[in-house]
Write a structure and sequence with these properties.
Number of helices: 2
Distance between the termini: 115 Å
Structural class: mainly alpha
Radius of gyration: 41 Å
Order of helices and strands: HH
Largest sheet: none
Shape: elongated
Number of strands: 0
Length: 116
Amino acid sequence: MNNENREPEYHSNFLSILFSLLIGSLAGAVTMLLLAPQSGEDTRKQIQQKSIELRDRTTEMVGDAMTQVRADGRKLTIAGRQKANELIHQGQTLVVDQLDHISEAAQAGKKTIQNS
């Protein structure tokens, strides 16, 4: 249980792991280069073609999204106008009802004054 014995053990394990990772990475890189199915030029062409396809798909998706946003905006505008018209109609109805109540109250007050 001496700390001096533990430090070299941890240090040794760390170096072993680090060395193993380095050797594994190198072996993977060499294997990848040896087993590559095509040349670097072909790979670059393929990456370029795929990036063009991705750009076209993205442009199409953005266009579709914009069309959907415009359609939804139109629907919201129409719904908003309909709701505004309903509220205007309700407001007009309330004004007419209140004016009727005021008119009835005025008539009642007028009769009371005439009967006094």
